[in-house]
Specification:
homotetramer; alpha/beta; Rossmann fold; Dihydrodipicolinate Reductase, domain 2; 9-stranded mixed sheet; 5-stranded parallel sheet; 11 helices
Amino acid sequence: MALKFGMVGGGIGSYIGDHHYLGATMDNLAELAAGCFSRNPEKNRASAEKRLIKDMDRVYTSYQEMAEKESARPDGIDFVSILTPNNSHYEIAKCFIEHGISVMCDKPLANTIEQGEELVRLVEENNVQFGMTYTYTGFAAFRQGREMIKKGMIGDILYIRAEYPEDFGMNMVNDDGNLIETDAWRFDPKQVGASLATADIGTHAEQVIAQFTGLYIKRVIAKMDNYPKNLALDTNSTILLDFGGGISGEIWASIIASGHECGMKIYVIGTKGSLEWSNETPERLLYTPKGQPTQIYSSGTGRGYLEPVTRELARVASGHHEGYFETFANIYRSYMETMIAKKEGRDPGPFTYPNVKDGLHGIRFVQACVESNRNGNVWVDV
Amino acid sequence: MALKFGMVGGGIGSYIGDHHYLGATMDNLAELAAGCFSRNPEKNRASAEKRLIKDMDRVYTSYQEMAEKESARPDGIDFVSILTPNNSHYEIAKCFIEHGISVMCDKPLANTIEQGEELVRLVEENNVQFGMTYTYTGFAAFRQGREMIKKGMIGDILYIRAEYPEDFGMNMVNDDGNLIETDAWRFDPKQVGASLATADIGTHAEQVIAQFTGLYIKRVIAKMDNYPKNLALDTNSTILLDFGGGISGEIWASIIASGHECGMKIYVIGTKGSLEWSNETPERLLYTPKGQPTQIYSSGTGRGYLEPVTRELARVASGHHEGYFETFANIYRSYMETMIAKKEGRDPGPFTYPNVKDGLHGIRFVQACVESNRNGNVWVDV
Amino acid sequence: MALKFGMVGGGIGSYIGDHHYLGATMDNLAELAAGCFSRNPEKNRASAEKRLIKDMDRVYTSYQEMAEKESARPDGIDFVSILTPNNSHYEIAKCFIEHGISVMCDKPLANTIEQGEELVRLVEENNVQFGMTYTYTGFAAFRQGREMIKKGMIGDILYIRAEYPEDFGMNMVNDDGNLIETDAWRFDPKQVGASLATADIGTHAEQVIAQFTGLYIKRVIAKMDNYPKNLALDTNSTILLDFGGGISGEIWASIIASGHECGMKIYVIGTKGSLEWSNETPERLLYTPKGQPTQIYSSGTGRGYLEPVTRELARVASGHHEGYFETFANIYRSYMETMIAKKEGRDPGPFTYPNVKDGLHGIRFVQACVESNRNGNVWVDV
Amino acid sequence: MALKFGMVGGGIGSYIGDHHYLGATMDNLAELAAGCFSRNPEKNRASAEKRLIKDMDRVYTSYQEMAEKESARPDGIDFVSILTPNNSHYEIAKCFIEHGISVMCDKPLANTIEQGEELVRLVEENNVQFGMTYTYTGFAAFRQGREMIKKGMIGDILYIRAEYPEDFGMNMVNDDGNLIETDAWRFDPKQVGASLATADIGTHAEQVIAQFTGLYIKRVIAKMDNYPKNLALDTNSTILLDFGGGISGEIWASIIASGHECGMKIYVIGTKGSLEWSNETPERLLYTPKGQPTQIYSSGTGRGYLEPVTRELARVASGHHEGYFETFANIYRSYMETMIAKKEGRDPGPFTYPNVKDGLHGIRFVQACVESNRNGNVWVDV
């Protein structure tokens, strides 16, 4: 394999661990060489075995030790995947960066804007590569849209809408309209911070916009709602967007949207046409040249009309499906192809992925939304 | 026939005239008995002939004369349809109301809030029936949704989204991004007032919400955008909604939405489930009981699971389509069944239609949006 | 109005009568001048009044008298619509044709192939115009497909599939799997002939193919099934098609297809691409040039990319809907525009409609299917 | 891991190899312990390394040696995956079975009915477990349908339709309508046998029916078409089905279906309702109880209304997607859970997978179709 990587967190039994492991290894570009899955030595070792780590000396019970030892080895890992609880991302990422080890981090990047800014600075100073797994941005048809916008196929962007409706929040409410107790910790501001729906899924919408259009939100007006009423966190969030230059937009993020399971969707209007992509049919991209019939672009191998990167990313024939794991794998592959290209002094070509600055922008976005809502739904700069 | 009606405007060659004529006569409840189609006597007479008016003495060249003479006849018209240019609705409606004749009026109701309030007062004082043809509210599946909400099938309403994307504005822009001259008058604030997209189609969304849920918007934050840039009117409008009682929502109205032709859609979340209706498949209503599979309700005859009013309104077997004309006819039918029931001292049952107060609320809504946008996107009461 | 027409059958209370009346009058090309709605003089007169016939002398209690008197008048009707029970179409049509009056006939044309052949001969001999209202062939987007095939946009046709699933037959069966008695007459071979599903809806599919592609079925293998089991008629029919020249196809017609209400659909593969149209979204036509993205053609005014006839037929802006009544009106309009053009010595242009030969082909098709099924599912020529 | 497996064929660079490797290892139930990827020792070794085989002594250059040595080891593989060219499946499968090693085999099972029957016999005699990877039958929503039918939710089955349209054949034809030479070998009867579309994808439809409904086709009438005309193999196949007991159906398989990429779909009518599943949205199952609204069942975790096996198979939350790799993994998981349960003396519960008899039935089906077509489209027993 071209690369070696490590994992912090994500042992056997971890939902997110499986995603990242499959994502990193699916294309035979990297092999898991080191890990720190658990502080419990037994669990740690069991996870390492199942994740097929060959050398048990590279299974660590502290991430600090792992960063230290791996950075000291001539055959040390090329990058580490951080899959621990959200509030630990910052410290672990910082440690590996400072040891010169590149990072792939689950979202969010950090707990505060200050932490995020520090990581951006450290990444630059230490010249490491930092990726973030904003899932939806990895779909091949999604990347197709990005390339078409870059080529000017819809002209200048005028307006952007992104929505992310889910219904899992409804499962947490009993018939009296109160939180079901066993899940209450998931809705505790002390655990999840100042925002729930906006932070958890609104940020996906924010990054979907950034990765699809190349545009970053400049200021927001956010209206956050909570259900059940005795919950101190937003479960539904409607956000007016200003991108500057006369470009407006909207994000809607909801975890109480009965009838919608994971409806992440983006729609972009330009002067020459529009593009629409939805996670409900993630292999499809709707392209409407101004005044013409809508065209259904389909990702997958065997479609000559697609952009090079779309064809590169496709693993299965068009009509077959690549799902949640594969979009993780696409982000990993893009990250790793970039790393390999750099090693070999080549241009990485069309491969791209959300990076540490994207992670920082996500934190800023949530904070601006919280502030806008707190102050009566006024414009707040991101 | 049970009823006689008249038309002001809407002669042969008038797009909207055909809609209303077909709408009023489709169900054999009313016959066109009088009309004032044009100030030109020849055109007036020709239209009357084509619209099958039997008595040419009842074809008038002024609406004032029509109101006067029809109100004096023992067999005078039961109601008049007003289909003249928008800025004349108020004066014509006022005239007929004051002569004790009921009115069916194309939107908008009037030019100003004051005029609208006056009409509301006059309707009450003169004890006439006043309907407004907000098209989408007439679809049988739409009415099915209204009944299900009234019966509590989705519980207490939490959040409401309505969108109305169209693309016809794009046809008015040339390749340089400027208005095509021949259509320029359609985009002149002197002609159309202070708003274009919000007034023209945003009000449809506002009424769709009111007629579907029974809720009226209390205050708004509106962000209006214009394209092309040298246009002084909104072509795209994103509006945060507050219904009071902790219920939020959003309206998006756009006439530059390439890829969408007439995508009027409403989605309502309640504590026990959700409902979704879209003009793209207007015979379908999506109902999702909390935690259960989404169900596709289909209007049309032969569906025992539908509410009485939905079955009453259906003219064709389920699977067949009723379109734009038929939804007009549904509003007319509801208006006329109510009138007949009143005459006969019966309860009109489940028939309902947008009325003069709905028309007034539409004007208030547009004005609040314009003010919010002008003042930097702040909350403005409707 | 340009034309005068009469109706035989289709009085007030008649479902199909409303469709034809609306269809014939929607575009202000014809006026109902004569009628024979019922043998009961009172009912006849009441229907005439509601259908707005002006001259009560032209309301007849026998169709023979109507044919005689109308053909004798200098201002006699230009054509008659025949809306009586199926088994009377032949004799009534024959009578009017022999009096030199053109005919618009509801399907089926006649009871036997011999009768159909006679009508074809009589139409030619008497030089009258004969149309048949095969509903689905009237949709503007359907006609768009026809024009595109004629222009060669999908190349040479290779294969054709048409399906027409409905579920109304299921409503006639009780929980024990037996016919509900009150509807039993609808399923009596003496009433409906040798076939139910094939004759009732399979023929629609047959004509949809003919009008869309210009191809007529040469021979069939039909497999007919019946449910409930004690029913002597087909409720589900699967038919292999041979069009000659190496072109194959299939028709499936079912009245027991739970989950499908009126899913008439056609899909045609050619050497250069494919076309697909479905009554579920009748304003849409899916066009896939070989190897390219599928394009969604949308009928309605304002779409410059459409063929002339599609634009001509559209009454509402794209995105709005034209339903069951409007497709009837399109067939009527095409029939009447052809008649007017002939009168004026003009070419009717792209207007077209199913004619008497199409009606005959429909009878032949059903008979061939019945024979194929009876003989153990062998090829039978149409 | 619970199990050890080996691979014959499917080395690095093999499309199908990746699918099976991922499928077998995705759920951490098995580890690749042995392999015979290539006769070229270097390639063989490279593949073994990439596929993470730990012990290089278990990398063999002949499958015979592999069968022999692995069956002799106390820690030998529990099963072998056979991923070699189609015409070698029989001999390799036979070899492993005779050494008492269980098999997972890519379709088709064998080249002739006789070979298939022999394998069925050998499987029984040697008491091994034999699975076949008919891809589509692995989707969780597909399995949901199977369980609902078994529970009687649609009553007695009346009619079954399955279609599998693809368009890849069109890519092989140039503008003159001839085969593109470089692909000609793929269309050579000597290479692929007597059938192309029917054997390649029609058999998927046949198994989709068997696994969904539990019914096996008793006899067929097949009409096979070929395009381009100079091709000696079917590219489009329409097949009437008889399941006995008055149950009919149809299969359509096409590789020239422009506009369809991988539209495997099944629709089943029963006396109490219907079920519909399509690979175009593989997480969805449409269930229509007779006379009631259609319900959209969605697979994925978190849906309490699903059958146990559907919930078991789901790896991601509903709304997220599982694709082509995951459905392979579902078949592998079902196969392996059954194997583990057997080892542990437990009932495997609801896990199921296509087996050697299914493979044999697939061969019989293709042969019957070829014969029916050759003999002028007559009924031929399967």
